[in-house]
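Hi V.,

You were right to ask for the full record rather than a summary. Here it is.
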Amino acid sequence: MSDWTKMSKDELERQYSPSRWSLRMSADDVIRAHVAALKSGTEKARAVTQTLIDVPYGDGDREKLDVYLPSSPSPDLPLVIYLHGGYWQFLSKDESGFLAPPLVQKGVVVVAVGYSTAPTGNMDLMVSQVRRSVACVIQQYSHISGLYLCGHSAGAHLAAMVLSTDWSEYDVSPQIKGALLVSGVYDLQPILSTYVNEPLKMTGEVALRNSPSHFLSQLKVSSTSCDIIVAVAQNDSPEFRKQSEEYFKALESAGLAVSLEDVPDTDHFSVIEQLADEHYSLTQLLLKMMGKS
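Predicted structure:
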């Protein structure tokens, strides 16, 4: 596998442009189709489940949660926190409920988290926000049987940062039981010179302190009993696939409970969109992780 430090800026940009690797349609079309799929899926979720919309976890405009609730409360109530993708600069919680129906019907609470995307928010702020959102959920839903994370792309990066949190600053110690990290970026350094960083304006120092691959020892302390699934699309770019494979290997070497799922016949977008389908392999893995399959 080639070394990103030896790639030209053009090649790095190509590697870190997920839409250019879809075999289904053109780059622009696949992004439009992705946003449409997430929006329609979220509209459906809001129509068929009980919801609490715009629950604040902080004072910022974007510091809000949407909660999707099972109709029959049960004592064994797992909760999934979903962190959306969009390269830290677009999408929001308002398109993030699409995965709720198959989970809610199995008695799982789903929480979609909002955070301040760039250029309004920077990387340090986003990481702080998702950590605070988890602390808030733990305080509000103390009766849940287990807390699980799911994140896609930028959201998988943020979920990995949550797993690597030193919770002593937050007055809670969430025992996160499982995490599904889908097509994430775990080392931010390769994107510093690409278009992705233009709204983020990360320095090398900021990229390093927000790269989950550099915080494995903290993850081992904070999330030692967490069952982690690192998933990647068959048609993700070689660099995206390498990010997932290397993060998986690092977690495995650290002695954590982790598996790598290479999802066939998917690209960077369809790999997450299909979580709306109860029969999809990743939906089934998420339910199995919670003992709900």
